[in-house]
Amino acid sequence: MARYRRTISAILLVGGMAGCASHAPPLAADHTAVVRGRQTAGLSPAEATRTVLVGAARLTVDHGFQYFRIVRAGYGGAISPGTDVTIRLFLKDEVREGTPGVWDAQKILLTGVPPSAVATARAPAR
Questions:
Q1: C-alpha–C-alpha distance, residues 55 and 30, integer Å
Q2: What value does the mean pLDDT of the chain take?
Q3: Which of 1, 21, 31, 90 could form an S-S bond across to 67 if both were Cys, CB 3.0 to 4.6 Å?
């Protein structure tokens, strides 16, 4: 009976660990990746922005980077529901913390997306 418990425990452990694994979209040679718009289709503009920022943060951390910048979004550069968003990833020593337009992925994942960040990210690029 003990042998079966160990086998069942091992199966559950492996299965549980597999459930935690995430598939990060591929990263281009210039350290860019795309957060797919299908994740935000049907959401309000503010919720779409939050979803994109959290998705971008996860993607950034999954690839071993610290920061990201939105390089291409919807019409006029604003994040829009259902629109793909291209981000560029940066290592910790590649940018200074607090650089305008650069987001700290770990901070977003730990503390969430503040309302002021949603307004900033929704503003069209100039």
A1: 19
A2: 82
A3: 90
Can you tell me the distance from the alpha carbon of 21 to that of 8, in angstroms, rounded to the nearest whole number? 20
* For residue 18, pLDDT beyond 50: no
Would the pTM of this model clear 0.90, i.e. be above it? no
**Beta carbons of 122 and 45 less than 8 angstroms apart:** yes
Three-class SS state of 83? coil
Q: What is the pLDDT of residue 98?
A: 83
Q: How confident is the model at residue 3 (pLDDT cuts 50, 70, 90)?
A: low
What the block records as the tokens of 70 is: 């939105």
